Each structure stands twice: as structure tokens, then as C-alpha cells.
Amino acid sequence: MAAPVWPSPARLVLGVLLSFTLTGAAAWLWGRACVEATLPLARHVLQLVDHRFTVLFLGTDLSHQDTVVRLRVNFAGPTVVGSQVVFPHPRGWLDVSTPVGSLLQPILIGCALAGAWPGALRQRVLRVAGAAALGVAFLVVDIPITLNTLVRDYVFHGAERFSAPSLWDAFLSAGGRLALGAVFAVLACAPWWPSHPRTRPA
């Protein structure tokens, strides 16, 4: 039989710390640019998610020393709010935002865990690239749903808190982004499962 040979605990911990440090540095340097690159697609998804609002602005901004994704919308047409019908005002708008740091959590966790898993340098790089690709693709969905939920909560005063986007946003806010980051890492490492860990004769 063959018994698995795992790396020493000290070496594994060192790899995890190094991977998280490098990933965190990359997120600090290029995280904002990564989010901005997804905004054109996120804008289209946002209009599909909720056609009751027109997007006036979607971009990154600074708010109290924190980088955020800011959304500014107006009603696209007459909209029922409670017992009233609200009409769009030419100069009216609603502004909501969400921190870039929270949006980057799945990418940060996914890349860090994928890079920390033992393997050759080439395999680690490919795993990190795979986790990053999954995380960036998820941003295209995460940004619109998160911002749309903030708009809904403000306009409808929580009346739509049981809608699918609101429930999904609640899951993400309760640790779902961290869990999805771990899932992205597992998916990125999957092609190399048969070769890790190494084996030796028993």
C-alpha cells in the first residue's frame, strides 16, 4: 500500500502565511483596478437584475479613506413604493456604495488557499490563476446584486427583504464570500488532486 506524505506542519504554516501575504499585497496594489475592469459587465447585469432603476453612475470612489464601489440610480419610470406611485424626477438620484475590500474577499481567500496548497511552483501559479479567474467572474454577479439590494432596502424600506437578491446578499454578508473563496480554491486545485499529497511505499 501507499501512505500519504504530508508536508511538515511548520512548512505548511509558512506556506500559508507567505501565500496570504503575497495575495494581500497583490489585492492592495491591483484590487481596485480588478474591480473597475468588471464594472462595464456589472452595469449590464445590474440593468437585467432590476429594470425599475436607471444607472446614472457606477464606479469606484473614496469614502472616509476607504475605497468603495459607488452606484447612483434614478427611477426608470413610475414605480409603486408602498401605497404610492413615485415618478422619476429629472434631477433626482439615489446613491449607495459598498467597500471594495469586502468584494475582493473571495479572490483573496481563493488565491491564498490555492497558492498555499503544496506543489511545484508552476502548479501553484496555475492554481492561483484559476482561483483568480473564478473570483473575477463572480465579481460580475456580486457587485450588481450587492448594490441593487442596498437600493431596494433604501427605497422599499425592507419590504423586499425576502426576494432572491436580498437573500443572496444576506448569505454573502454572513460569511458567504469567505466560503465561496474556499470553494474557488478547491475548484482551482481539483486538477492536481491525484498527485497531492505525494505517496511512498508503506
Description:
- The chain is of the alpha+beta class and 202 residues long.
- It has a domain at 18-50 and 100-201.
- The protein is 59% helix and 20% strand.
- The protein has 5 helices and 7 strands; from the N terminus they run βαβββββααααβ.
- The strands form 3 sheets. A 3-stranded antiparallel β-sheet has the order 2-3-6.
- Helix 4 packs antiparallel against helix 5 (164-189).
- The chain starts with a strand and ends with a strand.
- The relative contact order is 0.17.
Short description:
Helix content is 59%, strand content 20%. It is α+β, with helices and mostly antiparallel strands and 202 residues long. Strand 2 and strand 3 (66-75) form a beta hairpin.
N-end to C-end Cα span: 6 Å
**Estimated structural class:** alpha+beta
How are the strands ordered across the major sheet?
Answer: 2-3-6
List low-confidence stretches: 195-202
SSE topology string = EHEEEEEHHHHE
Q: How many helical elements?
A: 5
Radius of gyration based on Cα positions: 21 Å
Strand content: 15-25%
Mean pLDDT: 85
Shape: elongated
What helical percentage do the residues reach? 55-70%
Number of strands: 7
Let me know the largest β-sheet.
Answer: 3 strands, antiparallel
